[in-house]
Specification:
Number of helices: 1
Strand content: 15-25%
Helix content: 10-25%
Strand order of the largest sheet: 2-1-4-3
Bound molecules: zinc ion
Distance between the termini: 71 Å
Number of strands: 4
CATH topology of one domain: Rubrerythrin, domain 2
């Protein structure tokens, strides 16, 4: 079974579960009974987690307008962290 999406001019979109490859181009609207045309949409995007959708949108935006990186490289070591005791035995430059 696959989920197919249809759009009624009066009632909007609705989904139908049908055998794969058996979806007609038009279907009766379950609300008003009028003709509803099949709508083609990317599969699985309706069930994609919001974090994945946000990541994809960020990637799309970065193609035309990449985000500006102010500071790069590894983060600076924290000053409050004491040096490792083994480092005290290393020769100094
Ligand atoms: Zn309708």
């Amino acid at each position: 079974m696959a989920v197919y999406e249809y759009s009624c001019a009066c009632c909007g979109r609705f989904e139908e579960r049908l055998a794969m490859g058996s979806a007609p181009g038009t279907r009766d609207c379950p609300t008003c009974g009028g003709d509803a045309k099949r709508v083609y949409s990317p599969p699985g995007l309706a069930f994609t987690p919001a974090s994945v959708v946000a990541s994809r949108e960020r990637e799309e935006r970065s193609r035309e307008a990449p985000e500006v990186v102010v500071r790069g490289g590894a983060p600076a070591p924290r000053a409050s962290q004491p040096p490792h005791p083994a480092l005290a035995h290393l020769p100094r430059p």
